[in-house]
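Anyone opening a protein record will find just a pair of labelled lines. A complete record is shown below as an example.
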Amino acid sequence: MNPAELIKHFNLLPHPEGGWFCENYKSTEYISKDALPDRFTGIRSFSTAIYFLLEQGTFSAFHRIKSDECWHFYSGGCLLIYIIFPNGNLETIKLGSNIKSGEVFQYVVPANCWFASCPAPESPYSFVGCTVAPGFDFNDFEMAEANYLMKDFPLHKDIINSLSKKQ
């Protein structure tokens, strides 16, 4: 399938950080606030999952969430995921199906890390999934302000500047 067919078939909608998405799972059971770490402001579903599509020339802007996020590769080409850890280390993950070239089918971005993604230069598109636990809630989502992120992590200013929404 091509990106237009995927968008239509899965009823994908524009995502605030870039690309296309559809929530395809949200647990009907919830974790109470008092059972969650203090960083959560209320109850959260056990888990949520989305389909996510990025086409060549588009990106998912730097952001962070309060839960771990497991990325899964489905089709298309390699997706590059850039993760800035709280200690300032930058890691680039190649999510895809070419194991011999270092790509992985799954990768977990730890809670509270800044991360962004884009299709690799040779990839026309990347169709992936993301599973979040405790479940995703927009109250736990923070879009990066590039200027602040570059001040905190000046060694990574080029990638931050290229994969951030312009404020």
In short: The radius of gyration is 16 Å.
